[in-house]
Automatic annotation (TrEMBL):
Residues 62-162 form the Phosphoribosyltransferase domain. The lineage of its organism: Bacteria, Bacillati, Actinomycetota, Actinomycetes, Mycobacteriales. Its EC number is 2.4.2.7. The gene is apt. It comes from Corynebacterium oculi. This is Adenine phosphoribosyltransferase. The keyword Transferase applies.
Length: 186
């Protein structure tokens, strides 16, 4: 068995994670982080682990992805004394915005950031989200930030769903998963 990179966070997730069979469709086992986020000790350990990653990646700013990435990203930014960029779903921000559309398995989606009011040029941003699945949202967020001049320093997520190609879509960009999908790596 490998030594976990984040033993306290892994233990907290082992203790609080809820597994839901056949959601959102038959054959899928959904890993529900909601109980971990509601548990003060577990939430703290997750944030500490993500903050360590962001610090190692040289974050100057944290990018939190709509919606659970907001919760995690805000807490990580606070822990590190940094600001947070809320990367929103289409239509949630007043204009002007910069937007990035991306494909989903079942259609299209869009992410946005304000076009005014904050200077992201050459700022090192670490993207924080709850789950890496197909990678579409993280890739789109990275493209969006690069279009406004930011540097994506890395990606940090709590969970990864294997077999959906998300890791491969991120390419060479640094990625850390707090709770690896393979139990031997926990």
């Amino acid at each position: 068995m490998a030594t976990p990179q984040f033993p306290e966070a892994v233990a907290a997730l082992d203790r609080t994670m809820r597994y839901v069979k056949d959601f959102p469709e038959p054959g899928v086992i959904f890993q529900d982080l909601t109980p971990a986020l509601a548990d003060a000790r577990a939430f703290h350990e997750i944030v500490v682990a993500l903050a360590r990653v962001a610090r190692e990646y040289g974050a100057e700013l944290i990018g939190g992805l709509d919606a659970r990435g907001f919760l995690l990203g805000s807490a990580v930014a606070y822990e590190l004394g940094l600001g947070v960029v809320a990367i929103r779903k289409k239509g949630k921000l007043p204009p002007p915005v910069v937007r990035e559309e991306y494909a989903l398995e079942y259609g299209k989606a869009c992410l946005e950031v304000p076009a005014e009011g904050m200077d992201l040029a050459v700022r090192r941003v670490v993207l924080i989200d709850d789950v890496l699945a197909t990678g579409g949202t993280l890739v789109a967020a990275g493209s969006l930030l690069e279009r406004v001049g930011a540097v994506v320093a890395g990606h940090a997520v709590v969970l990864e769903v294997p077999g959906l190609g998300g890791r491969e879509k991120l390419g060479d960009g640094p990625l850390t998963v707090v709770y690896p999908p393979n139990p031997e790596d926990r």
